[in-house]
């Protein structure tokens, strides 16, 4: 299917605004959705304010679109109510709406916090066991599986980007492993929009030699990152957490938050 009409959720957030600039003028129509206010629509754009927990609102959002890029939802750890409404229900609504609309694919902003309880010394790939490090991370792991259900049952393609740390620059030593530049994020989204697959998990990470992740699956699909956290080593190498759990585990401060177990017992 040729992709002409795109829905971008979370369009008012940092990554959404980057992607909006990147996609502009390349598709016949881009519907931009968020719960927050967004900059006014330019030619070829449409703005819709929507809460992802509102089922009917999300069903209407997906009408007539060929591809959904779903960045919307709660971006960090929160209480159960917030996670259930914004992320779990939001994702269920989004996948069901994309299916009902006959869309070809959904690209989903998953997160490294779906696997944050892996040790930093373990190199993992797209096939590793999920180890959510928070309620937030669990919602991301859930949506990766939700994508499997819609892919295998209905043929709705889904592309799950386990984003590391997507910021203008790395800000601490952990990001020498997890950093994703805005440019590489846009390149990864292009792979999700252009390549052929049924259900894939890829890591949203730049070309960092110290990465925790074997991103061979993204490479296989055509991802070629052009940026690297190594360029920032001098400025961030000394910035580490005083918390031993945060420093030992891939998710950093997320697994360490509310942690009451023993680090030595985590396999
Ligand atoms: C995420 O999932 C968050 O959305 C982002 O704010 C960062 O904390 C990032 O993970 C990270 O792990 O650095």
Question: Poorly predicted ranges (pLDDT <50, ≥5 residues)?
Answer: none
Ions, cofactors and other bound molecules? D-galactaro-1,5-lactone
Q: Return the average pLDDT rounded to an integer.
A: 98
Termini gap? 44 Å
CATH architecture: 3-Layer(aba) Sandwich
**Lateral arrangement of strands in the main beta sheet:** 3-2-1-4-5-6-9
| Helical coverage, percent range | 25-40%
**Shape type:** globular
Question: What number of structural domains do the residues give?
Answer: 1
Structural class: alpha/beta
Number of helices, counting only DSSP H or I runs of 4 residues or more: 10
CATH superfamily: NAD(P)-binding Rossmann-like Domain
Question: What's the assembly state of these chains?
Answer: single chain
Q: Helix and strand string, N-terminal first? A: EHEEHEHEHEEHEHEHHHH
The largest sheet is: 7 strands, parallel
Strand content: 15-25%
Tell me the name of the CATH class: Alpha Beta
List keywords for this structure.
16% strand, globular, 267 residues, two-stranded parallel ribbon, seven-stranded parallel sheet, alpha/beta, binds D-galactaro-1,5-lactone
């Amino acid at each position: 299917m040729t992709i002409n009409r795109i829905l971008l959720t979370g369009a008012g957030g940092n990554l959404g605004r980057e992607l909006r600039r990147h996609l502009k003028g390349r598709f016949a129509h881009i519907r931009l959705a968020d719960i927050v206010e967004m900059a006014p629509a330019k030619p070829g754009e449409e703005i819709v304010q929507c809460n992802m927990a509102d089922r009917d609102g999300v069903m209407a959002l997906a009408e007539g679109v060929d591809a959904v890029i779903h960045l919307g939802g709660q971006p960090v750890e929160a209480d159960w109510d917030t996670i259930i409404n914004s992320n779990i229900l939001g994702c269920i609504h989004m996948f069901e709406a994309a299916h009902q609309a006959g869309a070809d694919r959904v690209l989903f902003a998953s997160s490294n916090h779906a696997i944050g309880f892996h040790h930093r010394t373990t190199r993992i790939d797209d096939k590793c066991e999920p180890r959510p490090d928070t309620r937030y991370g669990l919602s991301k792991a859930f949506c990766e599986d939700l994508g499997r259900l819609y892919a295998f049952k209905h043929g709705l393609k889904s592309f799950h980007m386990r984003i590391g740390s997507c910021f203008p620059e790395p800000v601490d030593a952990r990001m020498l492993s997890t950093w994703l530049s805005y440019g590489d994020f846009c390149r990864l989204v292009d792979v999700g929009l252009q390549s052929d697959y049924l259900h894939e998990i890829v890591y949203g990470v730049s070309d960092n030699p110290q990465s925790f992740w074997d991103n061979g699956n993204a490479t296989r699909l055509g991802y070629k990152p052009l940026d690297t956290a190594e360029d920032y080593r001098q400025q961030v190498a000394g910035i580490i957490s005083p918390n031993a759990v945060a420093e030992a585990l891939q998710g950093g401060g997320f697994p360490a938050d509310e942690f009451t177990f023993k680090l030595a017992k985590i396999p």
